[in-house]
Amino acid sequence: MSLKPGTRLGRYEIVAPLGAGGMGEVYRARDTRLGRDVAIKVIRTELARDRERIKRFEQEARAAGALNHPNVCTILDVGTHDGSPFVVMELLEGESLRHRLKQSPLPARKAIDCAAQVAHGLAAAHEKDIVHRDLKPENLFLIKDGRAKVLDFGLAKLTRPEVLAPAGETAISIAATETGAILGTVGYMAPEQVRGQRADARTDLFALGAILYELLIGKRAFHGASYVETMNAILNDEPPPLSSSGREMPPGLEAIVRHCLEKNPAERFQRARDLAFAVESVSGGASGRTLGATAVVGRTGRPSRRWWRPASLGGAAVVIAAGVLLVLRPGRQTPVPAKPVHERSAIAVLPFQNLSAEGPNAYFAGGLHDELLTQLAKVAALKVISRPSFVTVHTLRLDPRWDPIREHPRFKALLAKSGSGEAR
Fold first, then answer.
1. pLDDT tens per residue across span 33-90
2. Catalytic residues
3. What is the DSSP string of 321-348?
4. Which residues of 158-184 are buried (b: 16+ CB within 10 A; e: fewer)?
């Protein structure tokens, strides 16, 4: 439905067209009651008689209207005009992420910041059991003040539809193979979507990983000469590493993107908030507040699938204290000033044990261990025992014949060999 300037939709007066999407046309309008400019999305004329598309359009308004988050476009009102529904949204000044990508890839810092904001917006939606299912650069908007907004929940899947559906109305099911539903977003679909399987929050995280990849190097993670080839790549191929672009990337970012793009949903980030925390940690956004998520890179150079949730600082302090008691000289009760490098005290951190009933938490334990080692290595007064030496120390600790460890000659020899200067 094409509307001319001056057309009235209730209290809203059309000012000018802004653009068109797969399901509707967007206009700048004036709210004559409140005296403010808004954006109005009206269902396209050729789709107005399609009952399923009308339901999908109403579902978009209902889903997005339940969200209130700075990184999600706010729905202000809904209505109908000449039998066609419309949605009133906040008017955003800026550009879509697709338009921005046509110029050049984003600087790594801005790409990370954008991904973190989108992840926070998705987290708000997922907490209300809303899955977007159609995340792509066209549905992300960059405001002039630097904020990123998630748009268009037109294909959102309500995993608990009774939360938002009107009384007496059953859940809406839209076929994923409907013309236009796949072809427009195939490059950002998760493997489970390609297979026609159930989508959930982890599906959105796959799409966000693909978007972050594209923001960083300017090329899609999965792209073939045809839709079939692209879908085959999603199912079977790994995108080229970020380092192949020649651009400088923050350490750990490659592993985060790879973790988002795991073929198996169980091996991806499980929550959008975990992803947001991880990317903020890479950029330093979480430094000084709490420990960041860490990707562990294996000996082969490929990212290991060991990821961990943020742990309490109190628990980390207990582990550090235990390590100090293990390797420092007996009787030392108070901190001492930093020593020259050749006289530094040595410290080791024992691996964490997964005492919960959840097997995947073993990944978090490994990540926390590596993070502590990394942070301790920055302390000039301490010498952190290397990983191979640490394994030997840990073995000695488990053997009851070498108790106490501090008095055993092999332990002293190990520390002397590592360059600590003396056994402590």
1. 999 999 998 887 666 677 777 777 777 777 778 888 999 998 888 888 887 888 899 9
2. 134
3. HHHHHHHSPTT--S------GGGPEEE-
4. bbebeebeeeeeeeeebebeeeebbee
Q: Please state, in angstroms and rounded to a whole number, the distance separating the CA atoms of residues 151 and 261.
A: 22
Q: How far apart are CA 264 and CA 275, in angstroms?
A: 16
Spell out the residues 6+ positions from residue 320 whose beta carbon is closer than 8 angstroms to its own: 347, 349, 372, 376
3-class state of residue 94 by DSSP: strand
Task: Please compute Rg for the chain using Cα positions.
Answer: 27
CB atoms within 10 A of CB 3: 19
Q: Please, are residues 252 and 287 in contact by the beta-carbon 8 Å criterion?
A: no
pTM confidence score: 0.63
Determine contact, residues 119/279, Cβ cutoff 8 Å.
yes
DSSP-assigned beta bridge partners for residue 31: 12, 36
What are the backbone dihedrals phi and psi of residue 361, each rounded to the nearest 5 degrees, phi first?
A: -65, -15
Looking at residue 45, its amino acid is T
Provide the token pair at 300: 């082969």
Give the model confidence (pLDDT) of 276-303 as tens digits: 999 998 876 443 333 333 333 333 334 4
* Structure token digits, residue 72: 């999600």
CA distances from 62 to 71, 87, 161 (A): 17, 10, 11
Question: Cα(219)–Cα(241) distance, rounded to whole angstroms?
Answer: 12
CA dihedral for 95, 97, 98, 99, sign (positive or negative): positive
- DSSP code per residue over 284-328: TTTTTTSPPP-PPB-TTSSBPS---PPPPHHHHHHHHHHHHHHHS
